Amino acid sequence: MKHKNHRALKADKQQLAADVGKRIVGELGARNVQEAFRHLKGWYRVALETKAAPCPQTTERQMDKRVELYVRRAAYGESFPANGTPFEIRDNEPSEGEIRAAVMEMSNGRCGGTSGIKSEQLKRWLRGAKKEE
User: Fold this and answer.
1) Taking the domains of the chain in order of start, what are their residue ranges?
2) Which string of b and e fits 6-28 if b means at least 16 CB within 10 Å?
3) Each residue of 80-121: pLDDT tens digit?
4) Are 46 and 13 in contact (CB under 8 A)?
5) What would the pLDDT profile of 39-94 be if each residue is shown by its tens digit?
6) Are 17 and 43 in contact (CB under 8 A)?
7) Straight-line distance from the first to the last Cα atom of the chain, in angstroms, rounded to the nearest whole number
8) How many contiguous H segments (helices) and E segments (strands) does the chain have?
9) Among residues 41, 49, 39, 35, which one has the least CA distance to residue 19?
10) How far apart are CA 67 and CA 59, in angstroms?
11) Most distant CA atoms of the chain, gap in Å
12) Which pTM was predicted?
């Protein structure tokens, strides 16, 4: 029974790889490189059963960052109020220009979140709005 299950799992993995390969080739044929890469990334995430061990250099860098993060520092000083912040926080709603700049700085290729709106869609809408103006 164990060998039968192992063969069935191996056949499923091969079929998954073949299906993803066909999707990737189709996306590349349609010049959708980002979508092809997403398919590849998704397949790799599913196909990879064990997490790769981090290299020693990465571990050392992370350790150095954590040590720096939690090192004791002197307080802000006597002039700093006990319940305040060292900078001013604007609490008014953003201007239209700030919203436009923020939309154009959004990175592409992310999921839409709870609203389902992707950054590419917002950027397309903003370009259309600029054309109308």
Assistant:
1) 1-50, 96-133
2) eeeeeeeeeeeeeebeebbeebe
3) 666 666 677 778 888 888 988 988 888 888 777 788 888 888
4) no
5) 888 877 777 765 667 777 778 888 888 888 888 776 666 666 666 666 777 788 88
6) yes
7) 69
8) 5, 0
9) 39
10) 12
11) 75
12) 0.34
SS3 category, 118: coil
40 within 8 A of 20, measured Cβ to Cβ: yes
Which tokens belong to 26? 């189709």
Going from the C-alpha of 20 to that of each of 7, 45, 49, 75, 88, the distances in angstroms are: 20, 12, 17, 55, 51
3-state DSSP assignment of residue 85: coil
Alpha carbons within 13 A on the beta-carbon side of 118:
7
